[in-house]
Task: inverse folding
DNA sequence: CAAACTCCCTGTTAGC
DNA sequence: TGCTAACAGGGAGTTT
């Protein structure tokens, strides 16, 4: 499931292959993949636009488009559960779950592949119409421990659910939420407002560490312009029943806010950090 | 306002 | 072994 690190790798991949190229034509194989405008309008509008920039906001891919004499537009993409992209030769046969194809002026084309059909593309004149409600970027310096602490103070829900709330932090998904909670030894059911300053500091530090590590593992460019796919191996996610890598107690799986949640009942304390007192 | 639930989808997996 | 049913999950929308 693509979360912030996977989207970051995807953005790198696209930037290296699409920057400066012109989109000549679009084919929509599954209409609902185009969220807005209608797929017919999408096809009509996107032709002739060139790729000016590729970046990321939360789990969204943001492609800035430009065309002489036309308003600037943004192609936004969300991979949701199973989306992925490919830039390959127009001669290559279509893959099984290809949903949208954007022909480029270098003989290649961008293919949006998505088995589960949850992924979406948006063509808009202002990215804010789609990204407006997104919260803070976990990796940006502008996000301080103090700011996050203050935001969490106002939330009574389980910290696990709050981490998944894209209007608070943007880009954190189920896997990395479980991972950073385990790494910072915070119990997923703790009320967000109950976390102490030092717990928030630990949580943010571990969240950043986890995301950075995953970005490194997921897509590394060794200077040859090719993204080499690696693999981030979760420490708790999907490991229920297995021994905790810190204390050997069995990892437990519970459901929090309709989401599978993996944690160590022994070293992720439900109460305020015991380590502060015993240290 | 927030928490809880529903829906969109199909590959994978558990259960028989 | 082969089939079916349940499940997973991001986020928008709806209900409580």
Result:
């Amino acid at each position: 499931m693509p979360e912030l690190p996977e989207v970051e790798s995807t953005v790198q991949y696209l930037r290296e292959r699409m920057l400066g190229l012109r989109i000549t034509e679009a084919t929509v194989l599954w209409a609902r993949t185009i969220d807005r405008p209608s797929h017919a309008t999408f096809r009509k509008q996107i032709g002739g636009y060139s790729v000016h920039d590729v970046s990321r906001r939360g789990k969204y891919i943001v492609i800035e488009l430009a065309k002489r004499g036309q308003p600037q537009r943004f192609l936004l993409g969300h991979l949701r559960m199973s989306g992925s992209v490919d830039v390959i030769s127009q001669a290559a046969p279509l893959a099984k779950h290809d949903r949208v194809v954007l022909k480029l002026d270098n003989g290649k084309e961008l293919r949006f592949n998505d088995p589960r059909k949850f992924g979406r593309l948006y063509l808009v004149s202002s990215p804010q119409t789609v990204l407006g409600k997104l919260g803070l970027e976990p990796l940006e310096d502008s996000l301080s421990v103090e700011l996050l602490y203050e935001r969490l103070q106002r939330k009574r829900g389980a910290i696990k659910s709050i981490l998944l709330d894209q209007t608070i932090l943007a880009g954190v998904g189920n896997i990395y939420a479980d991972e950073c909670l385990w790494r910072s030894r915070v119990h997923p059911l703790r009320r967000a407002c109950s976390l102490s300053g030092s717990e928030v500091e630990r949580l943010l530090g571990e969240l950043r560490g986890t995301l950075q590590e995953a970005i490194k593992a997921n897509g590394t460019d060794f200077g040859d312009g090719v993204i080499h796919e690696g693999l981030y191996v979760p420490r708790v996610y999907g490991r229920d029943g297995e021994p905790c890598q810190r204390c050997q107690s069995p990892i437990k799986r519970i459901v929090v806010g309709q989401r599978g949640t993996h944690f160590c009942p022994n070293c992720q304390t439900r109460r305020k950090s015991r380590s502060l007192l015993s240290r």
About this structure: The mean pLDDT of chain A is 89. Residues 25 and 47 of chain A are 5 Å apart (CA to CA).
